[in-house]
Amino acid sequence: MKWEALGEITLLIADTDLFNRKLITTLLAKIPTIKIIETGSSKETLEILDNEKIDMVLLDYNMQLENREETLTAIRKEEKHDYIPVVMITTDEGEEKKLYANGANDVLFKPLKLTKLEEIIYKHIQKKQYRENYKNLYHKSDPNDLNCSNKTYTLKAVEDSQKEIFYGIAMLYSKKYNSINSKVIATIAREYAFVLGYDEDMADNIYYATLIRDIGSLAITKSIRQDYKFSTKDKEHYNHTMLMGYQVVNNSIETNFIKVAKAIISQRKEEYDGSGVPHQLKGDQISPFATIVAISETFHALLSPRAYRVKESYTTRETYRILEQESNRRFKASMVKSFLEYFDSFVQLREKLLRQNTLNYSLEV
Description:
Blueprint: H1 3-6, E1 9-14, H2 18-27, E2 34-39, H3 42-51, E3 56-60, H4 71-77, E4 86-90, H5 96-101, E5 106-109, H6 114-137, H7 155-177, H8 181-195, H9 200-211, H10 232-250, H11 256-267, H12 288-303, H13 316-325, H14 333-341, H15 343-355
Parallel strand pairs: 1-2, 1-3, 3-4, 4-5
Helix pairs in contact: 6-7, 7-9, 8-9, 8-12, 8-15, 9-11, 10-11, 11-12, 12-13
């Protein structure tokens, strides 16, 4: 993790347990860019947020205000705190859904592990900075003059703003279908990218590009069936959405993120043997980014209930065998092999992601 790239981080640890606060401080001591503020009081937590520049809050589930209002609820009432990620710390896995529903960005369970703690902090600080960059990108010295800006921006700032804009669009799509499948697939694709040796920047590009892979569907008024039992007309209609999605992102400044997004949007339904759509690409003509997403989609779909199939869902063992059989047919053999080497880890990751969400799962893939 490139902590230096994130700059100085001020972390607020709000926990009634002094021992737990000291444990977190000790675990994070090796990261010099993190400054820690501690409190054991809900009231003081809100005061610190009002008076200090806090980048992230680690909040004990048991902390409540004098009127028994949960501290998380009180924080989320304030619009000025919208950009501050709040990660809840608890021992009760049964409260996980409630915490997400009340505005928690993530949940950590005791006993805390350093690797997981670092991963959560890094991920949410990075996302917070994406959002702040997007907000700042469109800040003008004269709000009434739309043609004048005194600022210039790096390609990285533009790329960060693109991710934020398209992330917002992806959330519209997700709400349209009342599904968290895209987040599950995107997270699996991101971790798969690490397995294949891609760095954090590229893995994040793949994550955000996966979220918007169906962006062309927003322009279609007709409901798109998700069961793959398409008629010829339905297939043409679906292929058209991929082309429309490609055109949407193709009009953006050509950053690394846009390059990845275009490959994923337009090629993830291509197949290694040339039988895919929309252009019947074959072999190494297909981008590895598209294959990462295609394998992640297929993995999730096989393990998920699908009413249109003879077998509604497959066991993990059956899913493993099916993916294995797709080597050099649907997917490049070396990429399938890499995925299957970490198959059990992907199964565990998927199960965890599904547990964390309160939404119903629709047939998105």
